[in-house]
Amino acid sequence: MFDTTYFPGAKRYWHNGQMYDWQTRQVHVMSHVLHYGSSVFEGIRAYETECGPAIFRLPEHIDRFFYSASVVNLESPYTKAEIMEACRLIVRENRLASAYIRPNLFFGYGNLGLTPKACPAELTVGAWEWGAYLGAEGLEKGVHVILTPYKRFHPSQINASVKLGGLYVQSNIYATEARRLGYDECIFLNLENRVAEGAGENIIIVKDGMVITNDRSESILEGITRTTILELAEDLGYPTRIAPITVDDFLGADEVFFTGTAAEVTPITRITDSRNRELPQEEWPVHVIGEGKPGPLTLQLAKLYSEVVRGMNPNYEKWLTYAFDSKEEAQKALNGKLKFSRKERITKF
After folding, report:
1. Alpha helices of 111-167 — where are they, by DSSP H?
2. What is the CATH number of domain 136-305?
3. 95 Cβ contact partners less than 8 Å away, ≥ 6 residues apart
4. If we measure between CA atoms, which residue out of 271, 253, 265 comes closest to residue 211?
5. Where are the domains of the chain?
6. How far apart are CA 125 and CA 83, in angstroms?
7. What is the mean pLDDT of residues 80-92?
8. Structure confidence at residue 340 as a pLDDT band (50, 70, 90)
9. Is 7 helix (H, G, I), strand (E, B) or coil?
10. How confident is the model at residue 150 (pLDDT cuts 50, 70, 90)?
11. H or E stretch including 308?
C-alpha cells in the first residue's frame, strides 16, 4: 500500500490514456527515467470557484510542457488538447474542489544506454490536494531564506528555462540543505554572481514602487505565475522591469517575494547570506527586508492573485479552465464540498 499522507485526496491517476487506482504500479524499475531523470513535467493548480474547480492558465502550462519535451527530444503520444482534457478529468475523477496537478512525460522501459533509442514515451497525470508550498504562515508572515554560494545552471551549459526532471536534483540538494540549516528555502546565484531564483520559485523585488524580476538569460525558469504577477502589477498601475538583479539589489529591496505555481505569492522577509562558508553559521549576516514583514505592494498583489485564480475577478476569466462542464455538475459530483462563492471575501491577506 502507498501511504497518501503527502497526497491527500488522491484516489486515481491517469497513465497512457487510462485511469488507475492510486495503489497500482505501472513503471518498470529499469525505466530510463529512473536512472537518468529523462522526464519533463508541469506543476498546475486548480482552485475552488463558485463554478467548481478551475485550472489556472492550463493552456500556457501545456504549451511549456511541449516546449520542455522538445528540448529533451521527447515526443508526446498525446496532443495538447488530449493532455488538457486529462488534467480536467483527473480533477473530476478524484472529486477535488481544489488540486495540484502533475503531468509527467518520460522515457520508459526499453534500453539503459544514455540515448533512449528503444524507450517509449509515457505520460502520467496525477492530482491531489496541496496547500501552501512554503506553509500558510509563510504566506501571511513571510519566509526566511538562505543565499547560497552555489550557482544555478547557466544558459551556456543547458536550457534552464524548461522543466526537465533531471535538473531538479540541484534544487533537491540545496532546498534540503536550507531546511536542515533551519531556513525556509534557498536562493541561487548565477555564474555572473547575480541573483537567479529559488529552488523552485522565481524572485520579484520591489524598489521605489518598481516591480522588478529577471529573465531567462539570468539562469531562471520563466514562470507562469511570474508572468501573471507582472501583468497584474501593470494593471494596478505599477511600473515593471525585467532586468538583472544584483545581490545588492536583492538585499536592499523594499520588498521581496517568491512566485510560483506551488509557492503562489510568498513574501521574503529575511535573507541570511551564507556565501562565506568559512564563517560559522551563527556569523552569517542576516538582512531584514523592509520592516521585516510582508510589504504593502506584495500584499496587494497576493490578494489580487488570490481573487483572480478563484474566479472572483471577471477581467481574468480568460485564464480559467473549469474541470466540470457546469456549476450544477460540479456541485453534484462534489456532494456539497463546493462552498466557495464569488461574493466571499478573501481574508487571508
Report:
1. 136-141
2. 3.20.10.10
3. 9, 11, 333, 334, 335, 337
4. 253
5. 12-128, 136-305
6. 8
7. 98
8. low
9. coil
10. very high
11. helix 296-309
Tell me the C-alpha to C-alpha distance, in Å, between residue 311 and each of 22, 50, 195, 333, 343: 30, 8, 34, 19, 10
CA distance 118 to 82: 24
In this prediction, residues 117-141 reach a mean pLDDT of 94
Options 3.40.50.620, 3.30.470.10, 3.10.350.10, 3.40.190.10; CATH for 12-128 is 3.30.470.10
Q: Decide: 348 and 306 in contact? Cβ < 8 Å.
A: yes
Go through the chain and tell me how many residues it has: 349
Q: Which helix (H) or strand (E) holds 78?
A: none
Q: What are phi and psi of 84, to 5 degrees?
A: -60, -40
The SS3 of residue 247 is helix
Distance, in Å, from the CA atom of 278 to the CA atom of 280, rounded to the nearest integer, reads: 7
For 165, the grid coordinates are 526532471
Position 102, amino acid: R
C-alpha cell at 318: 480568460
Residue 225: which pLDDT band, with cuts at 50, 70 and 90?
A: very high
Give dist(CA 256, CA 287) in Å, integer: 12
Q: How far is CA 207 from CA 26, 232, 301, in A?
A: 50, 17, 15
Q: Please list, in sequence order, all residues whose beta carbon lies within 8 angstroms of the beta carbon of residue 49, skipping any fewer than 6 positions away.
A: 310, 311, 312, 320, 322, 340, 342
SS3 call for 271: strand
Residue type for position 312: M
For residue 295, what is its C-alpha cell? 510589504
Q: 3-class SS at 257?
A: strand
Residue 335's pLDDT band (cuts 50, 70, 90): confident
Contacts of 24 (CB under 8 A, 6+ apart): none
- From CA 49, how far away is CA 232, in angstroms rounded? 20
| DSSP 3-state percent helix, strand, coil across the chain (nearest 5) | 30, 25, 45
Tens-digit pLDDT profile for residues 18-33: 999 999 999 999 999 9
Enumerate the active-site residues. 163
Looking at the predicted structure, is the pLDDT value of residue 345 above 60? no
